[in-house]
């Protein structure tokens, strides 16, 4: 089996009936690049930049960030790299920002909410990204977007920094796609409106499930609610993918679900364009997709969307995809 997978390292990913999807990796630091390349990753679908800010006692400088982003973009030699702007807060703290304790950190001042307030911090990251953009195929993604106004504000700040850099004579790529994480239900529900303004979506199921089910993703006692195959989650995923396609945009997924062998047949059937997972899952996923018929998975997904419970969904997926 491992030998079959290894042969697929430099292949693209096609279903049995010739439908193309992209298999890319989630990374946290430039050190993870080797794993992406060795495992046949077609790019990076989520670069979690939090790690640049964590485990230290002050903010990383523009220069430090520039070097990290440049290293990843150069290392992937023109393959797509989706960099997510700072997603701090919730479970990820930065002691040196000395933010007040909150009653509900997962519902509080985090990610893009913090970045839109802490403007210098955000602008520094945007400048570092823009400066690095000429070294590869950069796509910028904002986390935890709940409203169109948040996206518009973040995008406007990006455009302002871009104009400043250009007026300073700094080269900036002209074709940077700008997208959002879809991980808050309000955004999934309003995906048709977002799709007119963003370049792409990446569905963050880790949070989307937690917020849709009102079940903490870390809390064992409510883990029975934390179900990726819940028909409610599938309907949200479907809405997002369809909304994007209607506007000619693409949709990826970078939550854990994207690399799960039970989810992959369903996601293929729902029309997902890009699957971002831990690098070590990529070859296995590519081998699996080569044996799946997209049109059969579409029929199965249609059926799954009409089922009332998670268990019934899992049952038909496993049958359709020949999983035990
Ligand atoms: C997600 O929420 O699915 C996601 C990919 O982001 P994180 O796990 O970093 O919150
Ligand atoms: Mg998230």
UniProtKB/TrEMBL annotation:
Highest taxon of source: Bacteria
Binding residues for Mg(2+): 183, 207
UniProt-listed Enzyme Commission number(s): 2.7.3.9
GO terms for cellular component: cytoplasm
Signal peptide location: none
Cofactor: Mg(2+)
Membrane-spanning parts: none
Record field: catalytic activity: L-histidyl-[protein] + phosphoenolpyruvate = N(pros)-phospho-L-histidyl-[protein] + pyruvate
Compartments where located: Cytoplasm
Protein purpose: General (non sugar-specific) component of the phosphoenolpyruvate-dependent sugar phosphotransferase system (sugar PTS). This major carbohydrate active-transport system catalyzes the phosphorylation of incoming sugar substrates concomitantly with their translocation across the cell membrane. Enzyme I transfers the phosphoryl group from phosphoenolpyruvate (PEP) to the phosphoryl carrier protein (HPr).
Listed name of the protein: Phosphoenolpyruvate-protein phosphotransferase
Organism: Robertmurraya kyonggiensis
Name of the gene: ptsP
């Amino acid at each position: 089996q491992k030998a079959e997978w290894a042969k697929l390292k430099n292949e693209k990913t096609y279903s049995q009936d010739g439908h193309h999807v992209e298999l890319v990796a989630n990374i946290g630091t430039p050190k993870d690049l080797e794993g992406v390349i060795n495992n046949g990753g077609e790019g990076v679908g989520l670069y979690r930049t939090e790690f640049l800010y964590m485990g230290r006692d002050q903010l990383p400088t523009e220069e430090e960030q520039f070097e990290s982003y440049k290293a990843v973009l150069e290392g992937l030699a023109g393959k797509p790299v989706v960099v997510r702007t700072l997603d701090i807060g919730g479970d990820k703290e930065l002691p040196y920002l000395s933010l007040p304790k909150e009653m509900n950190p997962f519902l509080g001042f985090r990610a893009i909410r913090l970045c839109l307030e802490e403007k210098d911090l955000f602008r520094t990251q945007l400048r570092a990204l823009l400066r690095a953009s000429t070294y590869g195929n950069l796509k910028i993604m904002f986390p935890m977007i709940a409203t169109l106004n948040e996206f518009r504000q973040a995008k406007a700040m990006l455009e302002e920094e871009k104009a400043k850099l250009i007026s300073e004579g700094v080269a900036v790529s002209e074709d940077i796609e700008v997208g959002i994480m879809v991980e808050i239900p309000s955004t999934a529900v309003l995906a048709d409106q977002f799709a007119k303004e963003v370049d792409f979506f990446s569905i963050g199921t880790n949070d989307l499930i937690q917020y849709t089910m009102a079940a903490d993703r870390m809390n064992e006692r409510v883990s029975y609610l934390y179900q990726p195959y819940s028909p409610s989650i599938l309907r949200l995923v479907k809405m997002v993918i369809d909304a994007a396609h209607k506007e000619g945009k693409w949709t990826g997924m970078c939550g854990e679900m994207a690399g799960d062998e039970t989810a992959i047949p369903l996601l293929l059937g729902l029309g997902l364009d890009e699957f971002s997972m831990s690098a070590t899952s990529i070859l296995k996923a590519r081998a699996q997709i080569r044996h799946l018929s997209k049109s059969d998975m579409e029929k199965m997904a249609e059926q799954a969307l009409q089922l009332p419970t998670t268990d019934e969904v899992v049952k038909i997926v496993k049958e359709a995809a020949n999983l035990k």
